[in-house]
Structure formats: structure tokens, C-alpha cells
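Assemble and predict.
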Amino acid sequence: LVELLPQRDGRGGQDMHEWRLEELFSEIQYSENGDFDERCRTVEKYLQMDSTHYQIKRAVKENLMSANCEPGNVHEYVRKLLAETELGVVLRNRIYELDEDAKKRPRLPSKELMPRFKPIREQLDVVDMARIQWDSRLKTELRSLLNKLSRPAVRLRGGKLNDDGFTVRFIFTSEDLLEVILAIKNPNFSGTFTKHVGWNLLQLQLQTPTVEELRSKYRELSPDIRQMGVDDTIYGSEWFGAERERTGASLANAGYIPHLKNFAKTGVPNSLRPALWGRILGCNPTPKDLHRYKLLRQNLASLDVASDSLFRFDVQETTDNDEFFVFSDPLNEAMLIFSRDNQVRSLCSLEPTTAVLEVKAPSPLDGSSSAETAETAETTAPDAKKIAIPPCGIIPFYQLSLIAAPICFIHADVEHIYYMWRAMYCRYFCRLHIISSQKDTIYYLAKTFEDLLSTAHPKVYYHAVSIGAHPLRTVFPWIFTAFAGVLPVFQVLQVWDRIIAYNTLELLPTLAAAIYLFRADRVLEAKSANEVHSIFKETVHIQAIPLLQHFLFAKGKT
Amino acid sequence: MMKDWKDADRRVGGLRRKTRAPGPIRFRTTFRNCILDTLKRRGWKEVEDDSECDLNWMDRDWIRERFDRVHLEPFQKVNHFRNHYELTRKDSMVKNLKRMKRQLEKEGKVEEAAQFDFFPQTFVLPGEYLLYVEAFKKLGGVWIMKPVGKSQGKGIFLVDKLSQTAQWKHDNRFNPDGPQAETYVAQQYIHNPLLIGGRKFDIRLYVLVTSFNPLKVHMYRDGFARFSVARYDTKNINNTFVHVTNVAIQKTAADYDADTGGKMFLRPLKLYLISKFGAERVNELFCEIQLTIIRSLQAVQKTIINDKHCFELYGYDVMIDDNLKVWLIEVNAFPSLTANTKDDYNLKCAMLDDMLSIIDLEKRLNGNEDQVGSFDLIYSEGYVKFDRNCEYTSYLGCTTNRTRQLGKLFRSRGKERELAERKLKKSQGGGKKV
């Protein structure tokens, strides 16, 4: 699809296609039998609706005005302009993103007789029921917690930030989520009648990739190819790190996302991480973003929402350890702003929760503190202005800020940290905290782990199950936080490099299985669950990438 | 006292051993923290007797009072040089640095002299009070007052107006000639320290000097940065919690976290700095830190009384400002060996263990190793040459593979000794046959 570029000129005066009403604000989808040209036309159509397109058009027009080139050469000039400046890069990246988006969604039927296909969020109704129950349970817990605080859910600040004492507790932890998803079972499953259930804790039969499939998918991790995180630390090949930096710096300047992703597949040098991740995630704050951040800060200063104390409590827990205590202030601010940002819900790749607690927003007109507790607030008139608690729609849980903490090591100022955290959470990490049977969500990832480990080393799997320390229970917290807080920070960042590069979270259970196998001998000697627990507490010396390589590519494993 | 009488007896009676008695290595110490654990872990025995022990690990009082009078046999070692205060007392340090700089300038080595600028401008009070006043009037800014004899951050305060010093001078009723006059140093305060998470920090590094003449310096690869609890704020200079980063002071702050101890280790710090400033600048920075340490030791090389029995482990406190310039804050001859977290304990025990390997009372090494555990030899009558393939120019802050390295080292030395013994036996045996 790189050939798309020559067809994209910033031509003025294109013919407007007729828009169907439903199409106007829908998402891009390719039609079923379309060939390459057909896809180009679809992308072009959607590109014209896009705001980036208008910005680029405007910039090109301004440039043309000031450059005074002859009318005959306009095409050439514009083409050259796009090829050489930042504008071309932005355009190409946008086309790439649209293409990626379209490839994810199901194809449109070619005959327009059938109604437009609406993607179903959840295909299995047992999972759907579990999700609804879970969402409403969280909502009730949140409501009861806020009632206990005995202060209005939302109120305007009297001037200074008053800190209510921390009489809060966490709404849920990774264990709660694990218990809930373990309880999901499909009544159609044959095991309910034959009682043959196997060693796995998870009861849904989802298809997960095998080691061979993973090996071919992640072939850039093969030991034949030099990796950051492995080859830059081996004595004798430290030049590799310097060379990577040079290549990476020139790629970052060019800025075309697929190239950057390819580069990131073999790891990103530390100094280039801010630039590269910023490009790939598209999270470099523009002036508009910075302005928005300022508004959110004002919101934080003027409005006092009860869920703030939950977020603050979580940050305090996270910065209570050696690795992150330095960043308690930036992390605090970033998480509080995150909680106030109501764009988060719409940006998440999978909608976080459907049951959102909403209360009437206090308006400065009718008294400064509309003293309504969470309970009474919901029964107010439906047309009153509502505000969600917390406004971002993500209910805070234990270790939410722990996942944000490694990002503090990448950027120094809060705005950058915030936007990068938001991009990472909305794209990838929100999928770790919801109940769904789709690919790349926590259920699927946990099942992948079980399958990988039980096929690779059934002996240690069985032994662990028999002493009461099922491997999934040990490993679930690691996947839940994407290894933040489990591995040393810079190992975590290397793993996240590959998550961004391959655009999937599948490496998390793979790494979990690799680490478990690494300690397999010691687990086999363990006699109780406590011993197993203490074996896996010591993770400081684990190097993530070599273990992944060993797991995927070692020949003749047991 | 009983001890003195025993010693006197020894000196008179004779029965003083010239060579050490066989058996495990014996040590003597009054400390009860990491150093004791490490010594015991090596299998060494603690003894009470001066004359029997191989290693004396002593505290400040013993050094001050007894060191001059005690007689040391060739096999015995003490962990301090007699006049280490030339390096560690703030006023002596300044004096020696200034002298070194002047000497280099006199010899015409202007460039080298210019490199001795890692110490902020300092004046010793009460002696140089007038010079200090002149400098204050010319430069202004904030100055920090540190008492010379105290440690752990005691007695430090900041001034930003000359009237405050005058006030203090009057309060203390100090008299330049009087005996109670407490010497202070007035130093220009580093107003733009590098901040991480909005907080000020300084870096503690461990440096082992086994001899001053020839100068042999080993530096430990790991170390840690000590953070202040509160955000850095130039407006409030009276808040010691913001400005003084010693753990002893930070411990008393209201929101000091006993679990974390306010320390970040050197490797994560280095990686963080790399992602912020780029590998090249950080490389230069760490190399500069190493060179600063060596220069400070070169400055006192001539004044310290060298002694084959002596070695010393220094704790260097270094600060970085936001232009990535290195400032030497002070040197400690008695760095704290008490650990407040588990990782801290591991670091100190590993460091002390490697130090004891270098001291080599068991006579297992040759004495010319470049790396022993995580200690790297950085200066031995000349800068130690660096591996050209390596992209870093200093091992400081790099990963350590100390257990593997130590294993390899001792095995190779063991093999060498075996070979040497076999050769000797062969030559002897050959002689005998004939």
C-alpha cells in the first residue's frame, strides 16, 4: 500500500462524492470483493472527511500563496512539497492508519441489498452476561464506597484542595477479576456432562495460537537477528547499540509509521523511545492537546470529584517502592487528569464499561456545592446535566497507576507523560481489564498462557496444579499489569516496544510462559504453594527478551 | 586499662609475631552492620586482640586516638590512612584543590588546571571571612554554610543575604583566635541542580584506594542517588528537607517513606538519563564523574602519608546540575554502612565483599587485575586504558556480572598457581634425581 502515495496529491477541487447519511460519520470499512483500486477509492473517500486532510490542504494552500510558483507547475510543486516536508509524512501516516483500521473491521457486503453490518461486541452470550454482571457489580461497589465517604459526589472546590483522609479501599484487584472470569462456563461444553475438564482453570474453549504459529508471527525475535536488549549488552557487540541509534534517528526524522514499527520489532534504543513511540502512537501533543491539558487542569482545580481520592490512593501505593518513588508528583497529576478526561471512553479500542455511574453536575448558577450524594443524584431529572464518576469512565482499580509508572521513565514533563499514557491505555491496556472473549483481551491471553505452558512442559504444569499453585494464579497478576512492577523498568519498556511494534498483546502470555519455564526446575522441587510464590517473587535479574527468544526458537526443548 | 597493660607487657616481653599465625583470617571491628555480616560471611573470625588480627576495621575514635600509637606487623591492615582528613575535611579538601590548581598553573599546564573546577567556590570561615564577604557582594546568590567537623548533614544552613551571615557570626560570638571557634565553610550553592520528578538528588559512589604512592584507585560500578522528599523550591531556603539530601535529615521529614529509603540505584538512573539526554551526553557525564574522582585524589596524593598497611574506602558525594556538569560535594572516609532497605543491604554487602577480595588477605590474586567483582581499576599511576570497542568510556553504572566474574577470576588464578607449583616441583624433582 506504499503505492498509495503517488496517487495522493493535495489536489484542490476534487469532485465530491455523494454521501449517504449513514456513511457520513461511520467508520471506514472495505467492501467484500474490492480490489486494490477499489480500496484506494474507499480510503480516499474517508480521507476527505478527515481533519488531517483539511489541515494539510490549508497548509499547502498557504505555502502556494507565499511561494508564487507558476500556475502550470502547481501539481509538480505540490508533489515535491509533500515528498519533502513533514506534511507528506503526516498524510502517509494517516492513510496507513485508515488502512489498518479498515482491515480490522469486517468487509461490507458487495450487494447493497443487505443492511449495513454492525459489528457485535460480544459473540458468546455467557461472556456477555458475565460482563454485564461485572460492570453492574463495579458500579454498585463504587456507589457504596462514595456513599461511605459521606460527602457529595461532585462539588465545586472552595478554593484549596482539601484532602479527605484515605478511608478508601480498592474497588477491585486482579484476583477479583480472575475469580469472575474463572466462573464463566458455557453450558454447551461437553465437559459439563462428561465431567472431563482437564487441568485448566479457564473453562471456555477459545482457540489460541500454538508455538509454531507464534514462531512464524514473531520471526523478528529470532536469535539470528540482532536485538536491542540482547545484543547491545553482550561483550563485543556494543557497537550495535550505537548503530541502532543512528538508524533509528534517521527513521524518526522520516517518520513513516510502518517503517518505524518494523524498526521497533527488534527493540528501540533508550534515547529514541520518546520520539519513536510518539510517532507510532501519534501521541505527541499538538498545541491543541496542550490547550486541552490546560483546561483539564483547570477542571481539576475547580471541581472536586469524589473518585479523586481513589486515584490518589492508588498512586500512593504505586510510588511506595524503590523504583517509582521519585515520580510520585508527575504520576499523581497524570492520573488525576486522566480521571477527568472524558475523551478516554471514546478513544478506548474496546469500550471499558457500559454501566457508568452518573450524577448531576453542579452548576455555578444554583449554589456552589450541590450537595448530593451518589445515591440521590441518579434519580434527578434525565435532562439535568450529568457528569460521570469518574469522568473518564474507567473505574480505578488496584495497580492502575502502576501500569502508567514506566512511562515516567520515558518523558520528563507531565503533558507528554499524560498523552503517551492515554494512548497506551486506550490502545492496549484497556483490553487487559475487561471481560470479553475477543482476541487480545485478558481472557484470551490467559488461555494462551495455559495452553502454551501445558503443551511445553506438562510435567511442571501438573506438579504445580497438584500442590495447589495453579500456574495461572501465579501469572495472572503479571499479565494484568503488562509486567509493570514485575520486571525491572527497562526490561518492561523493551517488552512494550514489541507490543507497539506488533500491535498485539500476545507477547505477554508468551513471556509469562517463558519465565515460568525458566524456573521450572525449582517449581518441580517445591512442595507447597508458598514455596512457588517465593520462587517467583525474585524477578530482578530476569532478562525478558532472551527468555522470549529461548521459548520461541530453542530447538529440542523438553 | 587492661588492654594497655597487656600491650605494654607485649612490648616489653617480646613474643611479638612477625608472621601471622596459621588459621582463618582474623579481624577486629566495633561495627555491627553490613561490614560485620560480610566479614563473617567470608568465614573470617572476629578477635579482640590487636596483635593477632589481620584486618582492623575501625571507627573514628580509634583512628583518632590509638592509630598513631599502635604497631602494625607486615601482615596486618587497617582500613584508613593516618591523615585521611586531608581529603575528607571540607576545609582541607578545598585547600588541597586550590594548591593543586595553582601548581599546575605555575607549571604552565593551564588546560589541566582549568579542569579542577568541579568544586564550587568555597571559603573557610572564620579565616577567609573578608574574602567571602567580597565574593558574596560580587556574585550574590545563595550560599551554603557547612560545619567542618560534623557529618550527616548536621548544622547546615543556607544564606541568601549578607545580613544573615553577619547575624550568625554575631550569634555564635565566634572569635578567630578563640578556642571555641567552630570552623565553617561557605560554599556557593548549586542553584540549578538536575531534577528528577521535580526533586533534587545527589549521587553516592564508592571508591577504594589501596595506596597513594603509587596511586591506585578502584571504583565500584554501582551506587545510588539520594532524593529529597520535597519538591525543589528555590524560594524557601530555610526548609532543610528540600535542600539537604542526606538520609539522616530526610528521615526526619514527615512524609519520609521508610520502605523506599529515598534511593534510586545507579543503573536505572543511568538508563533514565539516557532516555532523557541521549547516550552520548550521558557517556560523557559518567566519564567526567570518574575523572573528577581521580583528580581529587591526585590533588591530595602528595600530602597523604602512604602506608603499606593502609587502604581506604571513600564515599564520594557528587551532584549534577541541569547543564550536566559534575560537582564534587564532599568525600567521606566513613561512609555509612548501615542499610535501610533490602536492595541497599545487598549493594553494600556485595561492595564490601569485593573490596575484601581486592585487599586480598587470602593471597589469591596477583594484584594487577582490572576488574574484581564490580570494582574496576580506574587509575594506577596513569589512567587505565579502556576497551575501544565499548561504546561507553566508563564502567560506572553499567551492568555487573560480579558472581560470574569473580568465579572466573579465582578459577584462573587457582589454575595459574597450580601450574606454577607443578613447574616448581618438576624443576626441583629434576634436580634431585640428578
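The first helix of chain B runs from residue 2 to 13.
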